[in-house]
Amino acid sequence: MTANLLIDGPITRDMISSILASFGNDPVSGGHSVFLGQVRADVKGSKQVVAIDYSAYEDMVRKEAEKITQSIFSEFNDVRSVKIMHSTGRVNAGEISLFVLVSSGHRHQAMEACSKTVELIKSNLPIWKKEIFSDNTHEWQQDSLA
After folding, report:
1. What does the pLDDT read at residue 47?
2. 20 found inside a domain
3. Domain assignment of residue 1, yes or no
4. What is the pLDDT of residues 11-23, one digit of tens each?
5. What is the pLDDT of residue 91?
6. CATH number for position 135
7. Are the beta carbons of 118 and 100 closer than 8 angstroms?
8. 78 and which of 3, 19, 95, 105 could share a cystine (Cβ 3.0–4.6 Å)?
9. How far from chain centre, in Å, is Cα 81?
């Protein structure tokens, strides 16, 4: 697991480009699968989401992320690396709040392992979401795996 698991604010294109460039130097991986989670401008009732404010229990996030990574390595024997970045703080609608990159020898395991990693993040990481609406009210969001 890398030290920059939690990022203050949105995950930028420059961050993503830098990570992708470094993974391109791995000559034994034949497949890389990427997931980008973007804040949606959902409408709830008459209110539109303009941002999400993420809070995290940092020590526990690091421990759980390590468990997720080890689980992925155990389940998918062809996976070579797993990279997870998640935002904390405010992320506006349209901005990226979650980045997952899985590299493996072959594409099939990269894609399956990436999907499984995202599901484990959504269910296991102690990160909370406060939706901020256009009228400056807010609501804590219950995560759904849909």
Report:
1. 95
2. yes
3. no
4. 999 999 998 888 7
5. 98
6. 3.90.1170.40
7. yes
8. 105
9. 15
Please give the residue range of the domain that contains residue 105.
6-141
145: pLDDT strictly greater than 80? no
Contacts of 99 (CB under 8 A, 6+ apart): 11, 15, 16, 19, 34, 35, 36, 37, 83, 84, 85, 86
6-8/47-56 β-pairing: unpaired
Torsions phi, psi of 139, nearest 5?
A: -150, 135
Please give the average per-residue pLDDT across 82-98, as a whole number: 97
Is 146 part of any domain? no
* pLDDT reported for residue 128: 96
Give domain status of residue 40, yes or no. yes
- Which residue is it, tokens 């998640």? 86
Prediction pTM value = 0.92
Helix axes 58-75, 107-124, angle to 10 degrees: 150
